[in-house]
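Hello Y.,

Per our agreement to keep a running log of every chain we model this quarter, I'm adding this entry. I've kept the format consistent with earlier entries: sequence first, then predicted structure.
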Amino acid sequence: MTERRYDEQEIAAIFERAAEAQKAAQRHLSSEGLTLAELQEIGAEAGITPEFIAQAATAIGRTSRPSPRATYFGVPIGVSRSTDLPRPLSDKEWEHLVVDLRETFHAHGKVGREGSLRQWTNGNLKALVEPTPSGYRLRLETRSDDLITRLSVGTIMAVMMLFFTLVVLLKDPVSFNKLTTIGMMSLIAASVAGYAAYKAPRWARTREKQMEAIIERVTQMTSTPVAETMHAVEAKVDLDALPDQEETATRQPIGVARDRL
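Predicted structure for the entry above:
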């Protein structure tokens, strides 16, 4: 039997209807999405084990939640990230998280525990694993005291400069020396506040990327049961053996007392 052949007009009509059907299917998919079972069925056709599809879906559901940046006159001076955990961290997993924090931020920090609450702090930089009504949560947050100080000093100097300018212009005749003084004060105030305003967005983006990377690693670590994770880790990390080190300027230093620029 000879296979049917389509003429030009029929070919155009076939592709037109197929394109319309595909668009309709895409609209339906974008509005309703797919269930986990449907994703696993599609993955099975592509040779992906359903268990890995489920783990990936769980990880996607626990992506970090960005909190609004703390600002000072519109300039970011604090950032934070958090994510839900499927279970509490084991002692060994907590030790590896602390090592990760120390290596990422180049800061030794202090480790503490109160009941089921675990925390690592280095000045204003904090990492907390805390219980919630639905399970556990990892929360990372920091604030830059250096930025706050620079912006405060710049603001105070700007107010003083304005007051001084008004006094000079209203009380005494304007002279070259007075104008020079006003200009110098204006330049200093603008330099102090301007430097902080220029550096703040870059500092905030760097901190947020570091926090998101840590959360991603913890999410992967907790995507398997504790027994499997414990079996995969062979050596226990001695936290006290790690050297206390100052953070270098190459990775946005965080001081012991405060998060610097």
